[in-house]
């Protein structure tokens, strides 16, 4: 096998199996963790991740080697909607966010993609990603410590889970180093089993094979409107992943097959996921890491990984094992994952070389961070809007005001961007 293998390259079936399984394992931990936190069947997430990935590959004409999995950006707002309006309404909101994706994709296919970078600049994107991680952190700590009453049993299980994942992430080499979340969950699960913290009756009652448990949305226009702004967060994440995928493969995916096709391939699976009871999907950075490690960029391998995920969704015992996973195990791995999300937001700001001497960048990031981390959840009637949605919405409005002002008074932009010391 001569490396690298291009996205359109073919790999013989037998050698492709371990490569595809590696992609399946890379996405597994994060993909099943999201539905576990939301109270959904993780097997549905596996199925829709696989189906969504196949849709994405078809939409991008099998030119972009990306895998779709459960999005962490929607956890907090879906939990907020679930507590106030019910799970069905929250799923309707997820469908609404997918519709936003599709609308954006259609607009970009007609107008090009340059304007989207102006609407969601790096100073906005990085701050929102930080907010995602920090607003989720309290739930991770709660799960890790036993909920309302501190439990040392829960705490030690969570710390073992976290410790195993950290060791693998920092020191493991090769393929093992690509799956720290999965290995951490397995290690924490084994530790919890030894301490009698696993409810094995859930596994015993689960069939060996069968359909996953689907949940259908209850249509609620308010929920759809509340969750729609979160789509701009995942669109920003999508832009970053598409750029990284292009850098790894030395292709310009923004031009061929085009950002519009890529967003369409992400939006349709998000709509379908909401219709059957799975979390909204997004392109996965974990699988981009596998591409960089193996230098096998073949979309055929990605498609095979998607098929493996779909097949796993029919294994009832696997679903039982996941649903029996003790909360401290989920909490321990969540501490790492949510922290990594927040840190990746700071990395976005650094990599984009955001200049905070520019007062617009400073103001935009500051407002998004303060509103999001400050847990400002403004109710619309009796329907609460999550702090993430509020931060996203206010950031979009604020940046929109900057753009409108520049259109009305172009010379104002130069005045605002002047060095701060000159203004003093």
Automatic annotation (TrEMBL):
What Gene Ontology molecular-function terms does this entry list? xanthine transmembrane transporter activity
- Locations listed in the record: Membrane
Taken from the UniProt entry, a GO cellular component term is: plasma membrane
Q: How does it sit in the membrane?
A: Multi-pass membrane protein
Which top-level group of life is the source organism from? Bacteria
Which UniProt keywords are present, listed alphabetically? Membrane, Transmembrane, Transmembrane helix, Transport
Report the principal subcellular site.
membrane
One matching Pfam family is: Xan_ur_permease
Q: What sections of the protein cross the membrane?
A: 20-38, 84-107, 119-141, 153-172, 179-198, 218-236, 301-323, 329-350, 362-381, 387-405
Q: Does the keyword Membrane apply?
A: yes
Q: Which InterPro entries match?
A: NCS2, Xan_ur_permease
Write out the similarity annotation. Answer: Belongs to the nucleobase:cation symporter-2 (NCS2) (TC 2.A.40) family.
Protein name per Swiss-Prot or TrEMBL: Uracil permease
Whose protein is this, by species?
Answer: Sulfobacillus harzensis
